[in-house]
Amino acid sequence: MSFNKSGDKFVSCSDDRTLRVWCRDDNKPTKYTCKSTVCGFHSRPIYDVSWGRHGYIATAAGDNAVRVFEQQGGSLLLAHYQPDAHAGDVNSVAWKGHLLASASDDETVKIWSLNT
Length: 116
Hints:
With 116 residues, the chain is mainly beta. It has strands at 2-3, 9-13, 19-24, 32-38, 46-51, 56-61, 66-72, 75-82, 90-96, 99-104, 109-113.
């Protein structure tokens, strides 16, 4: 899971190939409620998710692809798709500014420049 910049939301990922966006309850600062569920983009389990400072959410999954979503209103929309980003499962993703790093079972780490 990964929190947004302000900490009032986080996104989680799952073996069931879903992303869920959770929002903090204004009346109970330690309670978060699922506000959005996204499915149908990955064909295998999602292993990692990273919410960048710019608001984009990257996913790492067992389908060898890297996907980037943007939040618009209460929905997540696909903003970037890199099929066959690696030759094996993509295990993790991490942002550094507009750069996205992905690591894989293929024993590589790749850096993607996403000027989103």
